[in-house]
Structures are given as structure tokens and as C-alpha cells.
UniProtKB/TrEMBL annotation:
The keyword Cytoplasm does not apply. It comes from the Bacteria. The keyword Ion transport does not apply. GO terms for molecular function: ATP binding; ATP hydrolysis activity. The lineage of its organism: Bacteria, Bacillati, Bacillota, Clostridia, Eubacteriales. Keywords: ATP-binding, Nucleotide-binding, Transport. SUPFAM superfamilies: P-loop containing nucleoside triphosphate hydrolases. InterPro entries: AAA+_ATPase, ABC_transporter-like_ATP-bd, ABC_Transporter_VariousFunc, P-loop_NTPase. This is ABC transporter domain-containing protein. Residues 1-225 form the ABC transporter domain.
């Protein structure tokens, strides 16, 4: 059973249409969700949570239609949404009344691990402290699925690594899953099993991360060299003043042409700016 399965899902707005798209988060895996601003990442996450209803298609979470099991879903957005005047201790009391599966001990353990003051108003926390508090809350009610929308945005590398370690620990249980949307693709390379690339409301790519990075490469070449390759060997092109770069299928390029390793950031840039 997949943790998340979207099939033929569409959502229409006056200036934007999401889908139809298919997206799967296999149980026991971390799926990195990448795409440019406005591509539909946050809309997709809201559809999964039931905050928006699709115009067509189906959304399944834990094998059931819709998002019915909020007890076992942890959500972290790119900013802290708790009232600023509340303290961590206040928030713990509120959430203990909201979740049957709330564990005060787990919450206290995370507050200690993150060195978060219990009585200080959340509005006086740093951004890193606020994100740690959001993660502590998400992980303190028997969560099996984490939905993360830019959880490390705006944080320094030390705090980002600390937060990624938390996600590593969470994934030691094979029944746990994560869907993480982020523009910091270097973070996704460290933790993700699969990558889903959304572009203009469509899933343009879904693949196992290591296979994807091994399959593709970057070729620096003159346009004449690129024109000699099969069209389907080239996934994207970036033309500079003096040289052209191309994202290519490694096994479709002659071995005499040197290729650079590819990163997720490269794939995002090439595919988002793909020439028609």
C-alpha cells in the first residue's frame, strides 16, 4: 500500500491549471517534490491534506480516499503558524486536546533535544527555533507520514543538517514516509529516494533519485555537436554567449564526449527552461 496515491488529479483556477497528474509516495520512502515557484507544489500538498478539493481525479492516503487519518500525518510548512503569544508549553496543551495519539513525553523529549524554551512566546523564537517547534509538534502524535513544504527554507546549513538528521531518524521505521517540497535541492539529494519534478502543473518526471543522477549528464559543446546527437538524447539546452550546455542521456552520447555529473539543481534548471 502506498502512503499517497494521486490519480488523474486536476484543479482549475482562472490563471492556472494543476494536472491532470499522477503522483505516488511509496510506503517507506522519501519523495522530493521539486519545481519552480507557481508550478503547483503547494496546491498539490493542500489537495493531499483535503484543504482543497480536486475538480477531478482521486486522492488516496494510506489506501483510503481523501485524507481521513490526520492522527498519523505530520505537516510542516515553510513558516510557523502557531499564534505568536503562545509558548511551546501552551501549544503542547492545545495539541494534546486535538490528537488522540498525542504523546506529551515525545514532545518534551523533542523540546529538550532542540533546546527549545518551554515558556518563551513563539514570536520571540528565531526562525530555526520555530521550524524545530513545528517539527516537534508534527512528530509527537504517532505520525507515519510527513508532508513538508519548504521545511528548511531560510535556515543556515548547520540547522538544515540538524533537521535532516531528524528526518533520517524518522525514516528508520519502514512504515514511515515523507513527501518533501524544497528549493534546496542539495538537501533533497541527501535524503530522498525518489524525485518528482512538477512543471506548469504537470508531473514532468518521477524517478528513483540515484538512477536519475546516474542516467543523466551535462555536455558542454558547440551547437554543431549537439545537432549531431539524436533529438531524444537531449532533455534540455542552455545557450550561453560562448558555449552551449545540454542535459543529456549518458547512454545516448558517444563516449568520446566528456560529460559532467548532474545534480538535482541542474535538472530543475534545464527542464524548467527547456527549449521547445
Amino acid at each position: 500500500m502506498d502512503a499517497i496515491h494521486l490519480h488523474n488529479v486536476s484543479k482549475h483556477y482562472p490563471a492556472f491549471t494543476l494536472g491532470p497528474l499522477d503522483l505516488t509516495v511509496p510506503t517507506g520512502s522519501v519523495v522530493g517534490f521539486i519545481g519552480e515557484n507557481g508550478a503547483g507544489k503547494s496546491t498539490t500538498i493542500k489537495l493531499i491534506l483535503g484543504l482543497l478539493m480536486p475538480d477531478s481525479g482521486s486522492v488516496q492516503v494510506f489506501g483510503e480516499d481523501g485524507c481521513r487519518d490526520l492522527e498519523h500525518i505530520g505537516v510542516v510548512f515553510d513558516s510557523c503558524h502557531f499564534p505568536g503569544d503562545l509558548s511551546a508549553r501552551d501549544i503542547g496543551r492545545v495539541l494534546s486536546a486535538s490528537f488522540r495519539t498525542w504523546s506529551a513525553k515525545t514532545f518534551e523529549d523533542y523540546l529538550t533535544r532542540f533546546d527549545l524554551p518551554r515558556k518563551k512566546p513563539v514570536k520571540d523564537y528565531s526562525r530555526g527555533m520555530q521550524m524545530k517547534l513545528s517539527i516537534a509538534c508534527a512528530l509527537s502524535h504517532d505520525c507515519r507520514l510527513l508532508l513538508l513544504d519548504e521545511p528548511t527554507s531560510g535556515l543556515d546549513p548547520v540547522i538544515r543538517d540538524e533537521i535532516l538528521d531528524i528526518f533520517y531518524d524518522f525514516m528508520q521505521d519502514d512504515s514511515h514516509s515523507i513527501l518533501i517540497s524544497s528549493h534546496i535541492t542539495s538537501d533533497l539529494e541527501k535524503i530522498c529516494d525518489y524525485v518528482a519534478f512538477i512543471h506548469q502543473g504537470q508531473i514532468a518526471l518521477f524517478e528513483e533519485k540515484d538512477s536519475l543522477l546516474a542516467r543523466l549528464g551535462i555536455l558542454h559543446a558547440d551547437p554543431s555537436v549537439l545537432s549531431s546527437l539524436a533529438p531524444d538524447a537531449i532533455l534540455g539546452v542552455r545557450r550561453g554567449q560562448f558555449q552551449t550546455q545540454a542535459l543529456v542521456e549518458r547512454d545516448r552520447v558517444p563516449s568520446s564526449l566528456p560529460l559532467e555529473p548532474v545534480k538535482l539543481d541542474d535538472i530543475l534548471l534545464f527542464l524548467a527552461r527547456k527549449e521547445g
